[in-house]
Amino acid sequence: MPLPPADRAQQVTAALADYIQRSNLVPGDRLPAERELMTALAVGRSTIREVIRHFQALGVVEARKGSGTYLLKPISGATIHMPLSLETTHLRDVLLKTLEVRRGIEAEAGMVAARMRTPDDLKTIEAKLDEMERVHLSKGTSGPEDLAFHLAIYDATHNPLFKQLLEQMREAFERFWEKPFDRPDFARRSFPFHRTLFNAIADGDPEAARTETLKILAIVEEDIKEMSK
């Protein structure tokens, strides 16, 4: 009995992810041509196009006119990619809804990192924090460095789902702007709490890590409300 279309698309999605991994493709590489994928996965053109569209919607691949489809993110059959789709007519509501969900996962990530971090993890997190503080003090803002600090904390959980979920949520969150609300000072007041969050993780204190994470996110929420008036 043939698979229902939804299951089939899901199976082909997983098969394509595996194929990309087996082909040792890395972000920046071009995907094989449609015909090659059709042969490799033994499916028709429309199925391949549907799966590629799905990966595009997730920001995993990008079609470039006249050039082909390129891999933007590492992918394997074991990677969880979920579409984060919210009606975006009211940016403020979308950001606040995203933040509600992020708060629970982010606070938990801080707690798990405080329990699971290794000496090497602490070195990495502190190096990212020092860089964030250096850039922040010289430029007054430190978006990429701030992100690198948080990603190092997610790595210190030793649970790859934290990083996957939070990276995707953060992308959904930040896709709408280069500088939030064209305000480089967005969430600037959260700057000192990054050091106290690191201290909590270094001390192996999950409750303190949760508290400091929530302080950062409370400021993010206040600034969304204030700056989107």
From TrEMBL:
The HTH gntR-type domain, residue ranges: 6-74
InterPro entries in the cross-refs: GntR_C (IPR011711), TF_FadR/GntR_C (IPR008920), Tscrpt_reg_HTH_GntR (IPR000524), WH-like_DNA-bd_sf (IPR036388), WH_DNA-bd_sf (IPR036390)
Keyword Transmembrane helix among UniProt keywords: no
DNA-binding recorded as keyword: yes
GO terms for MF: DNA binding
UniProt keyword terms in alphabetical order: DNA-binding, Transcription, Transcription regulation
UniProt xrefs under SMART domains: FCD, HTH_GNTR
Gene3D superfamilies recorded: GntR ligand-binding domain-like (1.20.120.530), Winged helix-like DNA-binding domain superfamily/Winged helix DNA-binding domain (1.10.10.10)
PROSITE patterns for the chain: HTH_GNTR
Pfam family, one: GntR
Name of the protein this chain belongs to: DNA-binding FadR family transcriptional regulator
Organism: Rhizobium herbae
Lineage per the UniProt record: Bacteria, Pseudomonadati, Pseudomonadota, Alphaproteobacteria, Hyphomicrobiales
